[in-house]
């Protein structure tokens, strides 16, 4: 169904335009300029509808690109940096640098500026809504809770990709101009606070639109979405009991089920979806990522990304994910080359008449099974861990795991994450990093990609313009 008054409104884009001008007009990402509350206070937060439209503008910005999907997305960028994706031609320079792991302080990935642009949107809008006396309490609670979820979500990626990113929850540009690096523990504490606040304030077991009316599309966060993200965060913090408990909230909820038909998992009506974004682009009516991942002759292979051969070889022969989620394309010109490509999302057509059948998915139930499997294994509940792992394997047409013992089972779970979550949200890179396997894997994978691996590249470089403009901000080790 089409969500009324949710993502795209004229007011939403006019408000967002002021936000973007404020951010893009500055010389550094942390220096976000004067507050949008001051710049646009006469319009943005004077009523329920104006506040809802302001938040809709943020949703639209996230869905239209940013680090959520497209050429600057975490899924594509970190899939290239890891051992999931490869370029099919010279293509984009930034994608090529990630693929060869040749990023540097001179040529950094673009995630940093996107993270802080979007954090600024959240901070400014949270303040404006919270301080407004013209927004009803129920609307205020819903919108602030949604924004806190997004802020926690964004900071999760900031801390995992950059190590010690500055933490700011204010729109005070003078303070933001002088921020120093924060410890990972400090950032994680804020992530947990935001996600727990969001979980407490969001609607329970129902998806709603901006007005609070129930909808079928799962494109705004609810209490279960916050729980799913908390499960992921607790897993990374090795808080196994909390990770298991949060994941169990999703697995035990009849609203969410593993979709048996693998061709149906990534459709917008999939019951496996926990949270997705509604497409807003007039060019990419379904997902933007499919236009990079579904390799075909129509785009002359200039920007498309194929799957790494080692990933394809890792699937068992009878694994249905190999036949349903991986496609092949053979060129017709010399040298004749056959590419394997990610075919989870299947609609790459740019036709204005193509049906909207796929939404970019941020979280789905399969991840929660694998989170709980790992958390249970870490707590020596090996039978429970096997049950969760086998739920994913059974859906893929595989026999139950033969892993025995805690170490072997944990390795099997990590391997299953590789095969189930490939090209989704940088999971492979982050899993290798948190399991202390990144150096071992990349020291073999990167030379095959034409690059050289150094352990410091596990953390990305901060853009040099920010370092030069803010003496309190320190570059990550290895990039000076």
TrEMBL record:
Provide GO CC annotations from the record: cell outer membrane
Which residue ranges does the record assign to the RagB/SusD domain?
346-479
The record's section on Pfam families has: SusD-like_3, SusD_RagB
Keywords assigned by UniProt?
A: Cell outer membrane, Membrane, Signal
Question: Where does it localize?
Answer: Cell outer membrane
Q: Where is the SusD-like N-terminal domain?
A: 102-235
SUPFAM superfamilies this protein is in?
A: TPR-like (SSF48452)
Asked whether the keyword Cell division is assigned, the reply is no
What family does this belong to?
Answer: Belongs to the SusD family.
Q: What is this protein called?
A: Starch-binding associating with outer membrane
Its source organism is: Pedobacter steynii
